[in-house]
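4.2 Preliminary Data

To establish feasibility before requesting continued support, the project team ran the inverse folding procedure on a target of 353 residues. The structure was first converted into the token representation described in Section 3, and no sequence information of any kind was made available to the design step. The complete token record follows.
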């Protein structure tokens, strides 16, 4: 005789009790309750009321082998396949760089109606960046810029080679995110040059390594720009508090560089801003610009560097560089005043990664 499925309260009570462990029979009954509730016809209350069912032949029921024991007699071998677990540590650093070697050549015959002279020039430029961004709150951007250009001149009887471009500059910014595009930022800008600078047919030294050396520390905010489908990118740095130090290792150049005579160092406090942008007009034309301004109640410096890159192919590019500068701490020029200008164009090898 087979009894209909009965709901026992003790089975459900044991399932939610920490002190009463469930038996195998309890687990099987609970599985039937959950999967086939329509088969339940009796409850424990009814059985307690009318009494248990009796067998007609009053035969003693045999205790069957435990289902778990019966199942364990079979073949339970499971083939375990080796699994390689590879842990990848997140890398928050991004490294990139630009390298270029540009050449310029100009030939002018002795009877050229406008005059002039033949010359050769070469310009090497390296820009390396190592930027940290943990995708949460902290950013740390570092950029090292190096440029060195040399030119020969037949009419210069004093110098065989002269520098046309000479720059060694490190920019480092540590930022803490304030909103989606704004960061509280501590910025450092340090720059000098590699070698000495002269004018044509003039033995007087105008600048040299660590003469001058400029250091600017500023505290403010950065605004990140990413427009026109990632083609116009960069940062605006606005700092109401800035410390500036100008140093020369050659005291003879102090007054020429805007430092008090007989001193090596000039220090002051002011405000500063820096704009660093790159605009890719197309796959072959790119404009990189940097604006830097620092002012106190006594003096002001302003620089605007513009580099137009015309990428002819993967390895060959032409560049146009335009650089106006204002500095009222140096001696005033009779023609340009406190304004200074530099411009050159070149063509040569380039590589980016």
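Position-by-position output of the design step:
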């Amino acid at each position: 005789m087979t009894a209909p499925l009965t709901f026992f309260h003790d089975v459900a009570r044991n399932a939610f009790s920490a002190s009463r462990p469930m038996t195998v029979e309890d687990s099987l009954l609970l599985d039937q309750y959950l999967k086939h509730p329509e088969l339940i016809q009796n409850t424990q209350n009814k059985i307690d009321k009318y009494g248990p069912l009796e067998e007609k032949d009053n035969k003693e029921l045999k205790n069957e082998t435990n289902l778990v024991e019966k199942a364990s007699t079979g073949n339970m071998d499971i083939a375990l396949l080796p699994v390689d677990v590879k842990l990848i540590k997140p890398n928050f650093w991004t490294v990139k760089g630009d390298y270029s070697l540009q050449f310029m050549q100009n030939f002018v015959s002795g009877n050229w109606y406008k005059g002039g002279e033949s010359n050769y020039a070469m310009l090497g430029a390296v820009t390396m960046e190592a930027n940290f961004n943990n995708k949460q709150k902290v950013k740390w951007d570092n950029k090292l810029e190096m440029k060195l250009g040399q030119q020969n001149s037949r009419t210069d009887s004093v110098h065989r080679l002269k520098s046309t471009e000479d720059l060694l500059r490190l920019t480092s910014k540590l930022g803490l995110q304030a909103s989606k595009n704004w960061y509280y930022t501590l910025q450092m800008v340090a720059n000098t040059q590699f070698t000495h600078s002269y004018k044509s047919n003039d033995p007087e030294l105008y600048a040299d390594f660590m003469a001058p050396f400029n250091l600017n520390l500023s505290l403010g905010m950065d605004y990140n720009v990413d427009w026109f489908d990632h083609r116009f990118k960069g940062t605006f740095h606005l700092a109401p508090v800035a410390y500036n130090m100008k140093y020369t290792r050659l005291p003879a150049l102090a007054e020429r560089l805007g430092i008090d005579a007989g001193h090596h160092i000039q220090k002051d406090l002011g405000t500063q801003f820096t704009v660093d942008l790159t605009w890719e007009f197309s796959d072959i034309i790119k404009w990189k610009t940097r604006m830097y301004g620092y002012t106190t109640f006594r003096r002001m410096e302003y620089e605007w560097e513009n580099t137009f890159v015309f990428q002819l192919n993967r390895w060959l590019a032409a560049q146009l560089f335009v650089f106006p500068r204002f500095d009222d701490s140096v001696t005033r020029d009779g023609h340009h005043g406190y304004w200074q200008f530099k411009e050159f164009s070149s063509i040569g090898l380039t590589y980016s990664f």
